[in-house]
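Final report, Chapter 2: Outcomes

The project's central promise was a pipeline that accepts a single protein chain and returns its three-dimensional structure in a standardized token representation, suitable for archiving and comparison. That pipeline is now operational. To close this chapter, we reproduce one record exactly as it appears in the project archive, with the input sequence first and the structure output second.
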Amino acid sequence: VLIICSHSSVLMSLPVECNGILETFVTWEEFESNLRSALRTKARLGASKTVLDIGEGIGFASRCGLITCDWVGAAEGEKLPKTVVLKIPSSLPFRKLNASLPAAQ
């Protein structure tokens, strides 16, 4: 499943952490809306949904998360994924690496 979020790539250069998924600009509401649309379902993600950062230290231009879905209201027999991988463009990994390096001389 390919999920396209509506934010411009300009947001990738935000210099600060955001309040969305994995400290990015992508909110749970936007993610759920796009996922539901892609899967053509009326089911919603419940309170037990989780995200695990699976890209820490691997690459410096995005955040990758393994989302465990908690589907609520799925139709009988509806097959929905239990997990989804979400990749979000972000400069935060590079900024964190840069901040950890010694100052240039």
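Archive annotation: DSSP finds two helices and five strands in the chain.
This record, like all others produced under the grant, will remain available to the consortium after the project formally closes.
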